[in-house]
């Protein structure tokens, strides 16, 4: 009898650890999505529950209660740099992402305690930020997901999609401001490579920044270090944008000549020749 009791005690002690070693697929599989927004990395980690024919909003997910925004562990979201959420500041870091679904609006919560199971230990005093958003509708989404349907240099729109509901919020970054600060700091020192001021001018031009005189100094600095197809073509495009089409054509033709001599990218040279022809066709 003592042996039987001892064996039962051993089983009761070993059983939990035995189950801990048993790996089974999750009913709501874990997922993660990472998106670079300018110079900021954003990562959302979540579990994906399925609709499975159930009533989701106001049923499986009650209205007016804090929800883990997924299944299993609370969803987390991390930012490598300071951001704004719908215009409100949020420091860099990792947060648990909770929500309060309502019939006509949702509250999105960024909580400082990232590592927690569901929202069972949610503590509102640890909230770093709350924002109110208005959901929209869309095609049925069986498995809950997060996506970044719109991404720009200084912002991205995040969308939570499940069932026929879409819940959006916008992440803002100071990418352009930060990039300009990096450029000015780099170009304030000794610059030996033509591609450094070229990259600065190219960023300003393609981003349509309102610093044309400064950007022109950068491209002139690049050309002064070394004339290349790339920096001559960029300056030609900048001149054309400023309405100096004849100067732009002359410089673009010089870029093509240098590009062919250096056997640069044939496709880009052909594009430049086509651009020159278009510019000439519009001259009075």
Strand count, sense and barrel status of the largest sheet are: 6 strands, antiparallel
Q: How many E-type strands?
A: 10
The total domain count is 2
Low-confidence stretches: 1-19
Which secondary-structure class do the elements indicate?
alpha+beta
- Radius of gyration, whole Å: 28 Å
Instruction: For the largest sheet, list the strands in their spatial order.
Output: 1-2-3-6-7-8
Fold and architecture overview:
By secondary structure, the chain is of the alpha+beta class. The chain folds into two domains: 26-172, no CATH class; 175-281, Alpha Horseshoe (Serine Threonine Protein Phosphatase 5, Tetratricopeptide repeat). The protein is 37% helix and 29% strand. The protein is built from seven helices and ten strands. The strands form two sheets. The protein has a six-stranded antiparallel β-sheet with strand order 1-2-3-6-7-8, with no helix packed on it. A hairpin with a 2-residue loop joins strand 1 and strand 2. Helix 3 (195-206) runs parallel beside helix 5 (229-241).
